[in-house]
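Quick one, probably user error.
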């Protein structure tokens, strides 16, 4: 059979209800995949939002199926129909639990359509009242990963090791998140001056959803202690929203920090805001591989972070950012003070951070690694069906 150039169709299936780390990574990945030869990429989302709008702005085919208007069966048949409309070979790439099930079932129901998933972080703790329901959902999700999807991709080595224990090593690989540094810097330069923060104080940021696992309470404790230790020296900014927002604002009132700690809420121009910061604190109990971390390093913002998830992998075990190993706020506070006392060391750290992002965490490298995974899935399926390395006349590498 003559070797031909054939388009590999990739459909990403995601919720799209938020604009957080996972959604930023999906956007960066899809944008980079647009530039790959022989690839056609589209996206199915279950909610309209920032992600759907940004994807349409760069010319991506986006289908939104409102999960609020459709039941589970209606959602499945709509996903099935959209996937079926694409010519194989075809990959359905899913990004969260509900989408894993919908996408895997749709792919399994169709000929020469395969499914993989990306796990962007560990699941958040749940309340006892819903513990059984969550256990059941996680069990079903695990079975889907093992038996209906070809590969599970983790964004950090730590997460990959944990998933290997659940799904088996052959089901799991690791692809770090990536960013488009040139595009990030261009966006920040275009929007410069939009975020007018006080220039006479050290500006320290927290970025993330206001949920327990992100530990905004730990950041607030650091802010309280630093403000008491050196009054008038610091300003603190909390970028993000979530169920702990009211609790956070009440804390600020009760500790007289309203003038010092500012709840900025959700910001689409977060990169531009971060470019104005003197420091980022990442104090979570767990992370995957935070997009905010990559963006701050690219922007030259010093980072102090707990050594969880993929953070040590990004920071080169401390060369590109200060890593705090224990979970106390005092250790974070001391790291801030030490960084301020060593400007030359801080600059070396910033330079190494920017270098590491450019070399190891680019969106184009991320897209190329996923391309190898897709090709491997199709090649393996072709070999198992007796068709060798060719699928529909196309050779997908050796």
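Nope, works fine. Designed sequence:
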């Amino acid at each position: 059979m003559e070797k031909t150039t054939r388009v590999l169709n990739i459909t990403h299936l995601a919720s799209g209800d938020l604009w957080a780390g996972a959604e930023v990574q999906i956007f960066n990945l899809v944008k980079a995949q647009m530039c790959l030869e022989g690839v056609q990429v589209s996206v199915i989302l279950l909610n309209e939002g920032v992600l759907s709008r940004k994807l349409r702005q760069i010319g991506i085919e986006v289908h939104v199926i409102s999960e609020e208007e459709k039941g589970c069966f209606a959602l499945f048949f709509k996903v099935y129909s959209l996937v079926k409309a694409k010519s194989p070979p075809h990959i359905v790439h899913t990004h969260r639990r509900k989408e894993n099930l919908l996408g895997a079932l749709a792919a399994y129901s169709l000929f020469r359509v395969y499914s993989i998933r990306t796990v962007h972080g560990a699941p958040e703790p749940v309340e006892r009242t819903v513990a059984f329901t969550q256990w059941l959902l996680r069990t079903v999700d695990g079975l889907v990963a093992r038996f209906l999807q070809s590969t599970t991709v983790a964004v950090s080595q730590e997460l990959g090791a944990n998933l290997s224990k659940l799904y088996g090593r052959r089901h799991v690989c690791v692809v770090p998140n990536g960013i488009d540094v040139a595009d990030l810097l261009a966006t920040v330069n275009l929007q410069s001056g939009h975020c007018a923060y006080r220039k006479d104080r050290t500006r320290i940021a927290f970025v993330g959803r206001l949920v327990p696992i992100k530990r905004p309470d730990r950041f607030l404790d650091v802010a309280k202690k630093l403000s008491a230790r050196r009054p008038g020296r610091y300003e603190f900014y909390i970028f993000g929203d979530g169920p702990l927002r009211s609790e956070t604002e009440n804390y600020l009132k009760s500790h007289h920090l309203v003038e010092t700690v500012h709840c900025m809420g959700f910001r689409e121009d977060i990169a531009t805001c971060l470019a104005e910061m003197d420091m980022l604190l990442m104090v979570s109990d767990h992370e995957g591989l935070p997009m905010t971390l990559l963006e701050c390093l690219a922007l030259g913002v010093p980072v102090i972070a707990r050594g969880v998830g993929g953070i040590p992998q990004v920071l080169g075990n401390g060369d590109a950012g200060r890593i705090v190993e224990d979970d106390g706020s005092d250790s974070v506070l001391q790291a801030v003070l030490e960084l301020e006392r060593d400007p030359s060391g801080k600059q070396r750290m910033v330079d190494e951070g920017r270098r590491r992002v450019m070399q190891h965490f680019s969106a184009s490298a991320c897209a190329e690694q996923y391309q190898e995974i897709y090709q491997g899935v199709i090649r393996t399926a072709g070999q198992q069906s007796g068709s060798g390395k060719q699928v529909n006349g196309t050779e997908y590498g050796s």
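The mean pLDDT is 89.
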